[in-house]
Amino acid sequence: MAASRLIVLSAAKSRQDGEKAGFPAVFFTGVVWRRVIAYGIDVSAIATLMVPLWILALLLGLASFGLLWPVVLPLMALVPLAYHTMTIGGPRSATPGMRAMNLAVRTWDGRRPGYVQAAILTATFYVSVAATAWLILLVALFNRRRRCLHDMLCGTTVVRADLEAAPVVIL
Q1: What is the DSSP-derived secondary structure letter of residue 54?
Q2: Residue 56: its H or E element
Q3: How many other C-beta atoms are found inside a 10 Å radius of the C-beta of residue 104?
């Protein structure tokens, strides 16, 4: 279905809108709401991963009379970091939630981010969200490419993956 779409752009309009080489504006249509839903899916997946790990941490803590809790509990914070880093830096460049919503992460020049860039992106996301109580994500509503602050700082953008396979004709 995605391959049957044809995206026709006017080169003059693209330059006028300030679009750089890479993705036309249509790739960012509906991205904000798709990202919100995708993150909800990812939170559910992370919670599913965390339940057995919390049980294991509880058992290890009880078996060691609480001595292992200072070691095990901080390690639990690495689960969301690893989840996002491994999936965004992986071959599909998207978390399972992003894939469900037809989104993908790309660098400014259209490449897939590597694991280091994905780790920096993830850490920047969690730090900025924790520091601003989610308000920092409103930045996406005020720019054409619907980029959040962590995207800007890491040189990435989130695009609609369902349009990537569509042929683009520039007039």
Answers
A1: H
A2: helix 31-63
A3: 21
> Looking at residue 47, what is its pLDDT?
96
Contacts of 40 (CB under 8 A, 6+ apart): 97
CA atoms within 13 A on the CB side of 109: 1
Q: What is the pLDDT of residue 133?
A: 84
| Three-class DSSP labels, 80-145 | HHHHHHHHHCCCCCCCHHHHHCCEEEEECCCCCCCHHHHHHHHHHHHHHHHHHCCHHHHHHHHCCC
pLDDT at 140 over 60: yes
Contact 164, 104 (CB under 8 A): yes
pLDDT of residue 156: 93
Which pLDDT does position 55 carry in this prediction?
A: 93
- Say how far apart CA 5 and CA 137 lie, in whole Å: 31
Alpha-carbon distance of 106 to 145, in angstroms, equals: 12
Q: Which residue is it, tokens 């690893």? A: 82
| DSSP character at residue 5 | -
- What average pLDDT does the chain have? 83
Alpha-carbon distance 35 to 138, whole Å?
Answer: 12
